[in-house]
């Protein structure tokens, strides 16, 4: 914060207006420590560049310059009004007063300025009043604000639920009437907005709002379809798959890994294709995890997730049903699973899935959690241990050429080491001699 205050002070000392703007001011009013600071000023980009030694012209045509102070980059934007729009950004801007700048912003709670030098708030849009009343309200005419950037429909839902506020009446009507426009927003921007929504503890309420407004049908229609997929006792008294997903989302703590949240959203999508009615009003979803993976991959690619994120989320979805198998697994296989880099997330998914059901499957979770806790001590040692044999050792000992057989023996060796069947290289080679006959 100190560096941000220094920038504001330098601008003011040079004869310009300068304030903190946007989310940092909202956070301060909530008595929260701001994550980053945006600065708004009457100084034009060229004037900002003259005042500060280190700058980067990231958007000079729109009045934005990056100022580097104490090795931290801050966005410094000239007060502006937008002229024309491509439904995402203005075609051009004109430089205006602080008041006019406030009126072109999205919501009243984001339109407040703060002067850190004089330590006072500047509020042209009644944002403080709406903060006190816990209201999300578009500044000015809601439709006009939405037409400037269609993503604001989704942002309204995010802010309302992240903050635990209510919609202003006109804002709610505008959101309902303009949901279709979100289909014109780029996949990347939708994904980024959903990520911000999903890290918050109120994510399930946001999903409910999106469903209520018809917005879920546009951004994640596969989730909306889960309303039609009925489950049955004794495992799912909560109702359909959509109801289960909402309960699972509630079990994930705030600020958890957002990819874990996505896995919770997507883990049961395959139940639609695998639903089978059984006698006595029971239902099965045998093999639904593989269908969930297939459908999830299409969604993640559509929303332009990175390859690494896709790999991570799909692994969690694929293995989410393994909690029943873990207590029956061979020790080596179980410990291999426990050593996987994503397993700490998977056990959180197990917990959310089992506790997000009515009744909560506490015993099933405890069985896995107890094994994991017990094995952790062994796993710590295994992570730093070197393999007792390498591929070269196996090829030399058994006269093998590089190939599939060597890989299979390495896997046998790894399992034997994990299960503590052998302790030395000599013992391992003797163990493999007995195993090689099976290949």
Question: What's this, in brief?
Answer:
By secondary structure, the chain is an alpha+beta fold. It has helices at residues 2-13, 23-29, 45-51, 98-103, 127-133, 142-148, 152-163, 169-177, 187-198, 203-213, 216-219, 221-224, 241-250, 258-266, 271-274, 288-302, 307-319, 331-339, 343-355, 362-384, 391-398, 404-418, 425-436, and strands spanning 18-21, 38-41, 55-59, 64-69, 72-78, 80-83, 92-95, 112-115, 120-123, 135-136, 166-167, 276-278, 282-284.
Describe the structure.
- This protein has a 7-stranded mixed beta sheet with strand order 3-4-5-2-1-8-9. A two-stranded antiparallel sheet has the order 6-7.
- The chain has 439 residues and is an alpha+beta fold.
- The model has no long low-confidence stretch (mean pLDDT 90).
- It folds into 3 domains: 130 residues, Beta Polymerase, domain 2 (2-Layer Sandwich); 144 residues, Hypothetical protein af1432, CATH 1.10.3210; 50 residues, no CATH class.
- It is globular and about 85 Å long.
- The protein is built from 23 helices and 13 strands.
